[in-house]
Design brief:
Elements (H helix, E strand, L loop, with lengths): L1 H29 L6 H20 L6 H17 L1 H14 L2 H19 L5 H16 L18 H9 L2 H4 L6 H12 L5 H5 L4 H16 L8 H20 L8 H17 L11 H9 L3 H26 L20 H15 L12 H12 L2 H27 L5 H19 L4 H20 L5 H25 L17 E6 L2 E6 L19 E3 L8 E3 L2
Antiparallel strand pairs: 1-2, 3-4
Helix pairs in contact: 1-2, 1-3, 2-7, 2-9, 2-15, 5-9, 6-7, 9-11, 9-12, 11-12, 11-20, 12-13, 12-20, 13-14, 13-15, 18-19, 18-20, 19-20
Length: about 550
Amino acid sequence: MLSILFNWLYIAFTAFCLGQAFCFFVEKKLGYHVRRLHSVMVAGLVAATVYAQVFSLFYKVGFLANVLLLLFCFLVLIVYRKRVREEVCRYFRECSHAGIAVAVLLILVWAYFTSRGYLVYDSDLYHGQSIRWIEEYGVVKGLGNLHVRFAYNSSVFSLSALYSMKFLLGRSLHTISGFFALILSIATLDIARAWKRKKMLLSDFARAAAIYYLTIISKEVVSPSSDYVVMCIIFFIAIKWLEQTERKKEDISAVPYALLCVCGVYAVTLKLTAGLILVITLKPAVMLIKEKRYKEIAMYLCMGLLTAAPWVTRTVLISGWLLYPFPQLDLFAVDWKIHAERAAADAAEIKTWGRALYNAALVDMPVSRWFPGWFSTTLSVSEKLLILADIAGAILFFLTAAYTFLKRKWENLDYLLLMSAVLLSYVFWQLSAPLLRYGYAYVLLLAALTAGHILEGRKWSVLLYGLMLIYGGYKLFVLAGSICENALTQAYIWQQDYGVYDLKTYELNGETFYYPVTGDRTGYDSFPAVPVKIEAEFRGEGIRDGFRMAP
C-alpha cells in the first residue's frame, strides 16, 4: 500500500504536468480554460499513454522513458511556472476543507483496494506478460503469434509499463486501474450538490451509476485489466458531457465536446469495443461546421489521429492486422501476420465465453437460443434487474426519439445523442461478448440515464436522492466489511503480486520459453511465457526480430 501511494504521487505529478501543458495549449489555441483538476489529470493520462506507446515503438519502456518524461515535466514547470502556480492556488481556494478531507480518504481507500484483492483470470493469462514485453522490448513484430491475446494491444498496458517502476523496484507495480478509479470517484463528488439544489440533474444519475460501478470493482482494481480503465473513461465522458449540456446556453462551446470526443478515441485504444461511443462526435462536428471553423476541425482531427496512431501502429506490428481480431480489414502483406483462421477462432472463443456457451463452435448460435441460458445462469438478481431495465430503456429511447421528431422537441437532441452512443454500445456488447466486466458502463448508464430523463429536475426527486444516500450507506458498510476481511493480507508496504505457477521450459532458437504444467496461466515473473507450447519461429536471429508462424 505504501509503494502504491508513492507510485501514485509520481503518476499524479507527471499527469498533472502533461495535463497542464495540454490545457495551456488548448487555452492559447482554442480559447477554452479547463478548470477542473480531475479533467487536467485525465488529459495528462491520455498524453502519458500516447507517449508510452510512441516510445515503445523505438525502445523498451522503462528507465530512459521515465527520465525523458521527467525532463519534460520539469521543463513545463519552468516555462509555465507562473501559470502553474496560479492554477494550483486556484485549486486550493475552490476546494473546501471537507472536500480535501474526502479526497484524502478516497486516496487511502483506493490505495488499500489497489494493494490487494482478486486478480482477474486474464491478469496471469496475458496482462502481466503483455506489460513485461513492453518493459523488456517495447514492441516486437508478430508477438501475437506466440499468444493471440497479446495482439489485443490495449494502450493501457503501455501506460502500465511506463509507471510500473520495474527498473527501480525489481518488481512490476500494477496500480493504473486503481488510479483511474480514484480519478472517477473524485469526478462523482459533485453529486452532493443535488441535495442543496433540491433536485437531481441528468448528470447526477450518471454520477450515481459511476459510484455504483466503483463499489462493484473495488475488490478487483488490483488487476492490470483494460476493462476497468475503459469503463472509468466511458463514465467520465458521460458525466462531463452531461455537465456541459446543463450549462447556460450562453456558456456553450464546442471545445469541451470536441475534447471529450478525443477522449472517446482514447477509450477505443483502451478497448476496441468502445468504438461506438464516438457517435457523440456528431454534436461538435455540427457545431463547428455551422460556424465554418474548419481550422479547429483539422486540429481536433489531428488530436484524434495522434491519440490513435501509435496504438494502430503497435497493433499492426504485433498482429499484422489493422484492427485485431477483425480479419476483414486485410491491408498488410507481412510475414508476421496472425493467420485469419486463428484470429477468427480467438474472437469466437471470447464471444462464446461471454455468452456462457464455452464452446467456440457455437459462435453462430442465434440470440434467441443463448440469451435465456445466459440470463438465467450467469447473472445475479441485481444484474438481471439491470438488463430488464436496459431493455425497457431501449424501448423508451425509441418512443422518446419518435416523440422528439414528431413534436419537434429539439431540446431532447442532446439527450438522444448521448443515449444513442450508450444504447448502441450496449447492443454491441449484448450481442457480442456479454460478460459484465466488458460492458458494465453501458449497462448502468442506459438504465440510469433512462431513469434520469424521467425524473430529472423534479422537486420530489430529492426523495430518490435520499434513498440513494441510504443505499450508499449500505454499500459503504459492505466496503467496510471488505476492508476488514482483507486487513490481515500483508500488502501494507508492497502491492499484492502476480500469481506463481508451476511451469516447464522449452527452447526456441536457443531462447528459453516457459509454459504451464497445467492450465494456461503463467503469471509475470517467468519470462517469456506462453499458455501452450506452440509452433512459431523467429523472423531473424533473435527475439527482437519478431515471430511468425512456422510453415
